[in-house]
Amino acid sequence: MKKLSIKLGAIFFLCILGLESFMFFFLHSALVESRIQEELNALQARGNSHRAILENHFTPDTIAHVALMETESTTDVAVTDADLQILGSSSKNKQLIENVKLPSNEIPQGGLIIENDWETEPFISTVSSLENEGEIIGYVFMFQDTETVHSLIKRLNQHFVLAGFLTVALTLFIIALLSKAITKPLIKMKDATFQISQGNYSISLPETGKDELGDLAKSIESLAHDLTFLTQERNDFLASISHELRTPITYIKGYTEIILKRDLSEVEKQNYLSIILEETNRLNDLIKQLFDLAKMDQNSFLIEKTEVNLKEILEKVEVKLAPAFKEREMTLHITCQKDFFLHADPIRMEQIFLNLLDNSMKYSGAGGITNVSVELKKSQLFVTIRDTGNGIPEEDLPHIFNRFYRVDKSRTRLLGGAGLGLSIVKELVNKHNGTITVKSQIQEGTEFQMMFRGAWSDENDLTGGR
Ligand SMILES: Nc1ncnc2c1ncn2[C@@H]1O[C@H](COP(=O)(O)OP(=O)(O)OP(=O)(O)O)[C@@H](O)[C@H]1O
Ligand SMILES: [Mg+2]
């Protein structure tokens, strides 16, 4: 992880250094250019002011005076007549005298810069023409030694180097702080994920704000939370399975031993054998349900959807269950007047109804009434199963779709339930993109309502679900 902060820091640094160098280069060239321009303008202005005096008094005295004035400053002057014969100069420098020559282009009223190459030439220079009544009577040449310009630029460069060093140092410092601030939470998250991979899910990460890192930390925490929940659920599930499998096997083993060891009458033998058969059936059902659930978990559970008529499915279910209801002195009313169609797996739809109605039958006393009704609202098919049975306590309602959840464990055991029916129903309804809800009042009854999308009936909407 340390490598990441170095990598991040180096990338930041290179980017910022590049940007800064670019900006410094432009700033430096602009400053140098404007300084040189200022020097040239000042030189020209000085030449022009000499010209103003000399135009009025073009006498040897005034020329000598002007030359004298320039000997005291960093600039030099050379005054010539119209033929470039030097009439007076503040310096006897040979190089300076050599540079007293006119430019090829015409000299305007405000004067002209003759030499601005401060880098290679010994002087920068300007010229202003002296006129009298429209005629040129001479020239004022102004010179500035480029040594002074060089030392000016040198000082500017020194400032730039200092500023550059300071900026780089400050940049490095800020980058070190920033990359540490970014990588620190990442290192913490890496440690946390390592802990998770080692099976320790009780991790907590510090708040890092509402940015992407904060989101990542929250995701890791919720992952750890989900894993805790899943591990707990898996352990509970395994404990429930082994318990559910062990109970019928204990019965089967016990009764088989009795039959083998004891000298029993034919009636007793029959009795015990029928218990063994019942437990074997229960075991068979349980294993089948578990197998279905395992397949659903792996998404290898096949739902073969075709166009089905719900009315036909309900009629089949009624034929299967009506005798059992009657035997227990209960009533099953299925009301489905129209043909309602939807895309579904007919076998699984039947399984949904069988599971729900089996519950209504198991958890109602004699005289109980179970009503099944169907309603189509804007291509949504609502199927309601309402019974007048025992009802489910409010605190159990959120859990009844969980695997192996039974409200009254001892009683339901007598009724043969393992607590898997509703979890299978929920999975099957989900696989059909439907929803299932439950309402219940203790001692009054329970109502399950399912909703399936994309349904239609022949009468009012021929195209609804197709
Ligand atoms: N219609 C109902 N009336 C009252 N209680 C119900 C009803 N349906 C379900 N329950 C309660 O919800 C629990 C879970 O139901 P579920 O169908 O999942 O399991 P089961 O019926 O006990 O066993 P299985 O369906 O696996 O044979 C039941 O044990 C029962 O207590
Ligand atoms: Mg059930």
Mean pLDDT: 88
Compute the gyration radius: what is it?
51 Å
| Coarse shape | rod-shaped
Give the strand tally: 13
Structural class: alpha+beta
When the domains are counted, the total is 3
CATH architecture of the largest domain: 2-Layer Sandwich
CATH C-level of the largest domain: Alpha Beta
CATH overall fold name of the largest domain: Beta-Lactamase
What does this protein look like?
The radius of gyration is 51 Å and the shape is rod-shaped. The chain has helices at residues 2-56, 60-71, 94-98, 146-197, 212-261, 266-297, 310-327, 346-362, 409-415, 421-431, and strands at residues 75-81, 86-89, 112-115, 123-132, 135-145, 306-309, 331-335, 340-344, 369-377, 380-387, 435-441, 445-453, 456-457. Strand 3 (112-115) and strand 4 (123-132) form a beta hairpin. The chain is 56% helix and 18% strand. The protein is built from 10 helices and 13 strands. With 466 residues, it is an alpha+beta fold. Strands 2-1-5-4-3 form a 5-stranded antiparallel beta sheet. Strands 7-9-10-12-11 form a 5-stranded mixed beta sheet, with helices on one face. Strands 6-8-13 form a 3-stranded antiparallel beta sheet. It folds into 3 domains: 2-153, Beta-Lactamase (2-Layer Sandwich), CATH 3.30.450; 212-297, Signal transduction histidine kinase, dimerisation/phosphotransfer (DHp) domain (Helix Hairpins); 306-457, Heat Shock Protein 90 (2-Layer Sandwich), CATH 3.30.565.10. Helix 5 (212-261) packs antiparallel against helix 6 and helix 7 (310-327) runs parallel beside helix 8. The longest helix has 55 residues, at 2-56. The structure holds adenosine-5'-triphosphate (ATP) and magnesium ion. Magnesium ion binds at residues 355, 358-359, 417, 421.
